[in-house]
Predict the structure.
Amino acid sequence: MSRLRGALLAAIYRKASGRQALPGVRGLSSKTGSELKVCIIGSGPAGFYTAQHLLKYHESAVVDIYEKLPVPFGLVRFGVAPDHPEVKNVINAFTQTAHHDRCSFYGNVTVGKDLSIEELKQAYHALILTYGAEANRTLGIPGENLRGVYSARTFVGWYNGLPENKNLNPELSSETAIILGHGNVGLDVARILLSPIDLLRLGMFLQKTDIAAHALEAIAASKVKRVLLVGRRGPLQVAFTIKELREMINLPDARPLLHPSDFEGIGQIVKDLPRPRKRLTELMIKAALEKPSGNEAERRAAASKEWGLQFLRSPMEVIPGNDGKWVAGIRLSVNKLEGLGESAKFVQTEDVEDLECGLMLSSIGYKSYPIDPSVPFDHQQGIIPNNLGRVLHAPGLYCSGWVKRGPTGVIVTTMHDGFETAVSVLEDVRSGALDVSASKGGYEIMEALLKQRGIRPVSFSGWEKIDNVEVANGEKAGKPREKLLDVEEMVEVASQRR
Amino acid sequence: MAATATRRFLLTSQSAVFKRLRHHDCSRYWGPRSCRSGRRGEDGLFFCGRVGASSSETWGRHLLNTAARLQSSKDKVTVDFINRDGEKLTAEGNLGDSLLDVVVDNNLDIDGFGACEGTLACSTCHLIFEQSIYKKLDSITDEEMDMLDLAYGLKETSRLGCQICLKKWMDGMTVEVPNDVADARQAKDFGSGS
């Protein structure tokens, strides 16, 4: 079905390499006689990929991307770990999209506060919500708010220079950190906590990345030596992927602590699994069961840090220290599994286990917020109810990315998802389900409102000025960039004359 | 403007340095954690300087590749790409170019191809090969397989285009751009609550 949709639309709207569109269909603008004005809310991968697809397959669509921060790119800038710069190369593709003459970027504009959805609906034919997931799921257990307990999301924001997390000041003076959750975000945090700052070797080391300076300093002074990742289900249900696991296993100056007993019987099941799950599990089994020899054995014996995976444990209570204010440990229920594979469920038993730690990070999933009462929102699933990106019961509203599907998946997932939503928009224009007969004012109307309200939007060239300053500041320290941390400063830099 | 031109020139010459350091005459991913478009910092160690780089870096590489393309035609290899809509795109590359290079240098119209620009950090250059060709390809590394495992529409003869370098015997081969697999959900309503 999706293949057919894609093929049909691609054939109809193709304009590349001198090929004619199908006879009689020269592009939507001439057919309807009016432009398509689209407003995209959120400038992460979802926003940019949806924009890219719309601009390519509609000859006159005008796409305006709104972003609440002065800087674009969402989690590519603030979520991807500093030691994974290759993943951020996608920014180049997004930059090309932003430079398209029918695309505009308006940063420092918060939809839902500076502009309302209603106002945007008056000015645009279609609104596409791509604002992702800015919150995190909470544990809902006693002691969750003790000092020394953070969400992985805020910790990631802290080391990635997200303005709202710059003053997190996490306590890194204890030897053991516990991370709750078996996903890639948890592994990222573990790796950043244990990465050698200045170990001389070929490749990436932390002080040459774009990690925020305050985080680099704090991690350099950190006493954390052991990180345990605790998950409520078993090895076959881990959510992280093999590349990140491999990085942990190969982390210099660190040894893996996996318990062979956790993998009893797993070897048998693995054989019949699809390749990705099979390889991932086999790698874990190898790390748990294989006795390393020679250099590797020496390396592990000499390692000053360690990390491990604990399975079948659910958090029940965060245990405070004697002062009652700081985390000192966690009480976990021992679980067993019911069912098989990725949909297996955990069941708590009577048994509990206590683990000591001085730092605790919960990495159990991001969460979206509803942006405006007029936009439908499913509070249980934490997404905007939709069908292939068309918001249910809300003509003219679309969504893509995490706010559409839930907060999982890598960039390629969001790419396909963004394209899918764009195809829905284009289909609706073609079928008339999206009414584009009336011409709309677009940004001109918003500009007047923003001016009235004293909001200074940051254009893409304004972002490029910020970019230049960050790169220049980074060069002094041998880093790709030193991110600005203050929103006011960003807006100032963006509005300077050349 | 002048700043961009200077940067472009500098990056072009850096690309030239990097080209000499490539594995044999193949532009595939070289060494652990290095990046096709990485550069040497003052300490002599490689790091990827692409973060937030503008399109001038890509242009630098394009200039070099265009120059390379103007050399002798006996080093040329022709490849047919079957796009997602069934259209056949025929393109030419030099011996040693990766299939990602071929797509980029020929400006082939394949949506979203090569997001991470050949650094084994995504799976968007995923291509499907004919069985007879697949068997003869250089063996796959763990790093490539790790990323391929996340690709959409994975088949037995799938590989990542950025890791496959043109050899003479590949002349005239056909590769297929996989379709975004719609998983079983299709047109199901998400979060309808109804």
